[in-house]
């Protein structure tokens, strides 16, 4: 079976409301359609790469190709898990967790997006909490980092709510103009102090060697 060669396909994260996992082909198509409906206010660009401004057909294809690309390029020293987020069985967004040289650095980065009609309901916080549980409890990470433009208030609120500490300011580019970035860092100790959302993990142990998280 394919899962025997690619065990990440069996990875499941569950919170009180959500399930995070790799989507089936039809579910991936639904995610692409959701992205076309809109992810953010048109007046605010939260991403360095303004992929949400692509024409609808290209935007949908980009969501699908991003999923396939991260999956195909996954290897122990550089990986990204592009997990679909499901609410009541329907895809509502994507929570990505990625790392380079995880076996050495024990650090993860994260990115995410959520369909606009599902925003403002605490889903963004819950799906990031699931990702952090996978990173710290499942993979043995020592820290998680995040970066958000200072004008992306929703993302910054999620980071602060989950215990991330401000870790400096950076300079990025958004729509061809300078955009100030707020950097965040969350240690394992602080995560343990702030964790308040119940998360369960299924199918992660067979994935550990593929993610550079196996025992020495």
Automatic annotation (TrEMBL):
Keywords, sorted A to Z: Transferase
Keyword Transferase: yes
GO molecular function: protein N-terminal-serine acetyltransferase activity; protein-N-terminal-alanine acetyltransferase activity
Keyword Cytoplasm: no
Gene Ontology terms: cellular component: cytoplasm
Chain ranges of the N-acetyltransferase domain: 18-187
Organism, scientific name: Jiangella ureilytica
InterPro entries: Acyl_CoA_acyltransferase, GNAT_dom, Ribosomal_N-acetyltransferase
Protein name (Swiss-Prot/TrEMBL): N-acetyltransferase
One matching Pfam family: Acetyltransf_3
Matches recorded under PROSITE patterns: GNAT (PS51186)
